[in-house]
């Protein structure tokens, strides 16, 4: 049983609210220092350093930087105006705009927490001014931000592709249908709640076609960024890592020369945010790599896969069990860390039963995004509640129907591989 001690220590440290990276590294070192002493510590440290020496991992800082550049470039305001002109006249119009903006921004920011923070500062105050309850505003902002990482170039899509050794391009393409289904489910739920509470639309009547075309024309440069990235990778013009650099360049050009809101004085803040975001993500990934080294040595992934298959060899039942596991883990552990830890454990089991790894990746990512909105430790929940000063119990009450809508979408995606794989197979 001592081989499972690092896992027990890991979850104990999580529950004590120790930072994820430190928890991973500390529990791994317990194994290499006290349980398996046959491996020199110098070799472990070499692995620690070499874990970061990966060309595909360079995509992460670039895409984090994209989100930061976008916040200073006027792209977000342009997309907000477009979303408002399209659906602002609906009952609960600003709530719908909140979801639409997350969907439009998903292909640019790729980060749920960045999206949640930005909308909490830009859109949430306007919603409360128009009569929306603050807890309801917070719930929508957090729930809609779960869409961003599912649309390329979400960072989680890249990390999963590296963990599962699948095509980043395929993961990107597979994200579109699930993301739009999540957006649609939230909008339907919002429409029902808004009608019951009589929330007014942000516009008294639909925007005229001329105004919509104006905002669409203004937003086209921003909307073309994700499609340019996908097409560039599809035709082999650049790798996913190079796509990140291209995305930064495109956002900067649009910010400087099209919207003219990005200034040289913004660069220090952009670099600071990029370094902070990259260091925290990379530290977690490196810690997870060391933890994964311990699990590989002890063949824990194979043991877990065998145990799951012994419980059931029915693919549908196994996927349901994995969904429940991911949802529960997502309530206690930050989504990215949960994916990094659990993907190597669960992937062998689902591959043995013939599950497509790209389809499984979408299931995992949607799952952990729902976990990010779910108490008690959802990261987007904490981001929104802390910025908007909303009590946790009020947030939980308002977010419940939105979580139910997202869970229904998750079930559809889990049992409809053809739906998830439609675009990747088409291309």
TrEMBL record:
Residues 7-417 form the TRAP C4-dicarboxylate transport system permease DctM subunit domain. It comes from the Bacteria. It comes from Psychromonas aquatilis. Part of the tripartite ATP-independent periplasmic (TRAP) transport system. Pfam families: DctM (PF06808). InterPro entries: DctM, TRAP_DctM. It is a multi-pass membrane protein. Belongs to the TRAP transporter large permease family. Keywords: Cell inner membrane, Cell membrane, Membrane, Transmembrane, Transmembrane helix, Transport. The chain crosses the membrane at residues 6-34, 55-75, 134-161, 173-194, 215-237, 243-262, 274-296, 316-333, 361-388, 400-423. The complex comprises the extracytoplasmic solute receptor protein and the two transmembrane proteins. It is found in: Cell inner membrane. This is TRAP transporter large permease protein. The keyword Nucleotide-binding does not apply.
């Amino acid at each position: 049983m001592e081989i499972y001690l690092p896992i027990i220590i890991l979850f104990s440290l999580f529950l004590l609210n120790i930072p994820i990276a430190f928890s991973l590294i500390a529990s791994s070192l317990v194994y290499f220092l006290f349980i398996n002493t046959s491996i020199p510590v110098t070799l472990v440290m070499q692995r620690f350093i070499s874990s970061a020496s990966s060309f595909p991992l360079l995509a992460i800082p670039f895409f984090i930087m994209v989100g930061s550049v976008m916040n200073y470039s006027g792209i977000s305001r342009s997309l907000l105006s477009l979303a408002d002109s399209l659906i602002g006249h609906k009952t609960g119009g600003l709530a719908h705009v909140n979801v639409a903006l997350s969907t439009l921004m998903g292909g640019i920011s790729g980060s749920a927490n960045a999206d949640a923070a930005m909308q909490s500062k830009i859109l949430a105050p306007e919603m409360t001014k128009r009569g929306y309850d603050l807890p309801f505003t917070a719930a929508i902002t957090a729930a809609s931000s779960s869409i961003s990482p599912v649309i390329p170039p979400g960072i989680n899509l890249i990390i999963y592709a590296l963990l599962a050794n699948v095509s980043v391009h395929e993961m990107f393409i597979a994200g579109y249908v699930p993301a739009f289904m999540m957006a649609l489910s939230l909008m339907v739920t919002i429409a029902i709640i808004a009608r019951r509470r009589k929330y007014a639309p942000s516009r008294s009547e639909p925007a005229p076609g001329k105004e919509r075309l104006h905002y669409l024309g203004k937003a086209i440069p921003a909307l073309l960024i994700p499609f340019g990235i996908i097409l560039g990778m599809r035709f082999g013009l650049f790798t996913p890592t190079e796509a990140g650099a291209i995305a930064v360049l495109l956002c900067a050009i649009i910010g400087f020369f099209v919207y003219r809101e990005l200034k040289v004085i913004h660069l220090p803040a952009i670099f600071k945010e990029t370094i902070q975001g990259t260091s925290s993500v990379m530290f977690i990934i490196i810690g997870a790599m060391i933890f994964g080294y311990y699990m590989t040595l002890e063949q824990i992934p194979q043991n877990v896969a065998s145990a799951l298959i012994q419980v059931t060899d029915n693919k549908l039942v196994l996927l349901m069990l994995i969904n429940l596991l991911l949802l529960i883990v997502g309530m206690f552990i930050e989504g990215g860390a949960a994916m990094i830890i659990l993907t190597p454990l669960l992937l062998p089991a689902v591959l043995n039963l013939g599950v497509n790894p790209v389809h499984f990746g979408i299931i995992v990512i949607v799952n952990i995004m729902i976990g990010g909105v779910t108490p008690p430790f959802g990261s987007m929940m904490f981001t929104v509640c802390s910025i908007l000063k909303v009590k946790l119990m009020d947030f939980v009450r308002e977010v419940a129907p939105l979580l139910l809508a997202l869970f229904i979408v998750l079930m559809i995606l889990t049992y409809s591989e053809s739906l998830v794989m439609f675009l990747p197979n088409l291309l």
